[in-house]
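Reviewers asked in the last cycle whether our approach scales beyond single polypeptides. To address this, we selected a multi-component target totalling 653 residues and predicted its structure end to end. The input consisted of the following lines:
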Amino acid sequence: MADTTELAGQTPYQRVERSDEFQALRRRFRRFVFPMTAFFLIWYFAYVLLASYAHDFMSTRIGDSAITVGLLFGLGQFVTTFAITMIYVRWANNTLDPAADALRERVEGGAL
Amino acid sequence: MITAPLHLAAATDVGNPAVNISIFAAFVLVTLYIVIRASRNNKTAADFYAGGHSFSGMQNGIAISGDYLSAASFLGIAGAIAVNGYDGFLYSIGFLVAWLVALLLVAELLRNTGRFTMADVLSFRLKQRPVRMAAALATLLVVFFYLLAQMAGAGGLVALLLGVTTAAGKNIVIAVVGAIMIVYVLVGGMKGTTWVQIIKAVLLIIGAAVMTVWVLAKFGYSLSGLLEGAVAAGGPDGVSLLQPGKAYGASGTTKLSFISLALALVLGTAGLPHVLMRFYTVPTGREARKSVVWAIWLIGIFYLFTLVLGYGAGALVGPEAIKAAPGGVNSAAPLLAFALGGEVLLGLIAAVAFATILAVVAGLTITAAASFSHDIYANVIKKGTLNPDGEVKVARWTVVVIGAVAIVGGIYAQNQNIAFLVALAFAVAASANLPTILFSLFWKRFNTSGALWSMYGGLISCIVLIAFSPVVSGSETAMFPNADFDWFPLTNPGLVSIPLGFLLGIVGTLVSKEQPHPEKFAEMEVRSLTGAGAEKATARH
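The resulting structure, written as structure tokens, was:
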């Protein structure tokens, strides 16, 4: 079997890599994680820059309380982190895993 | 509602050393028993380095939080919030958001393609020996910085919690803590280390939860009331505790330093070798995902607790009393425990603080041992001809050596101002490790030359910039306050070295004429996304 694959100039993994199913899986994965990463990094740095350069805005108090806008933004970072975690897990369980499982069975079962 | 700070006569009188020592001794005995039980079938290299890949996602997630919530983040952040207010809170946000990088881009893919160390993944399709060497050097350096910072904190803690004030007494305590750590790692390997981290994380989170509810109860369960209390106790300038900029807002340069730190924190976590190595203790990439989810929840909730604890310490103990105590800002959480629950609660928190140092140092030590033995000794020096038993033997000796380094470093570092070392470890991880990890997982064209440029470039630029920064010379709080060779103005190198690490990875790749290995990349990509062919669990523990 090794001979024939070398003759074809491709390893089994390369054939999986070029399959439509794998290409679709990779596209889906990247289309989810790259924009999500961009989103949380931008939101994080927006927060950091506001804390550094918008001192008065971040120090504004909410009503009569001692809670400031800056504190709410900071807590907002916690909320988005937890939310992104839950969204990713849900997406990965429902979308990523079934497709990955199907491909893995093909690789490990030798049905290439 | 209590608004006046408790004035503590002398902080060394706080608590009862006998209580503190007994609670800590009980922790050591219980964990030692569990470590010995858990490690009865510790035979193979996979057992020693990765706990047989047999922990569940939940167990590993708890262990990750035990590993990550170091003395710096528990004692350090609570203290920073008590003294600097809002700017202390910013730290915890960077430390938490960073986990999304690990969750989305690193954990699963890394677990699916490697076995024991970060270098396993890098050497998958790059030239083994140079890449392993560079990755191992970066690992050892990050671990060394992190280790020194942990051990240096131990000295101040000893003075506060055990009533030991003589130099010799402190040194003995540091040596005992180091020796216990060596025993854990030698006997238990990764399994033992993991169990110590799990137990410690549970105690730490429960302890922090109890104190958080207690503090809130004193202020009528009102966050606003707590903040008012902290402002009232903060003196004439108390209101600045609620505003950003108390620690970093002084000038344009300090603001840039802060942004540099923020960048290092958010990108460093997913490149920390002891964090990466934890992903190999689970059987699959999917369990690695679960680990990170558990870690994010536990770490996030814990940092919310520290917000309350920090302002609570500010309100109930007072920033001046904290700064005057032995151990400085690190004493905020222990002093708050004493103000709330007297010597028993202080004893519990003190024991947890020691357990924290122990667990984190154990995790760092096993990472360094694996990196030296598996990457440098077995694959670079012996070129892969060593059998696994020989490799584990070398790893065990490395544990003893690193334990000794930790003890000696801890003794010498006690009176040094080296708090910047943790931030520096994050900067090195973000500049030298993360670019190479991401490029080798996601960029087909990436090659050995790019990896070496990025790793050595990131590493060297970090060290050079920090050496010529105000934390080493030229300021009152510097390591060498009397010397003056600080031409780099920022206290953290990340803002320069992290983009440089990424850029060098690209440039190094493009200038090299190295032949690409499409078949290797295909295998790596398919395995990373599907989990095919990954190293399986060897045994249940």
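Chain B touches chain A through 51 residues (CB under 8 Å). We regard this as preliminary and will revisit it once experimental data from Aim 1 are available.
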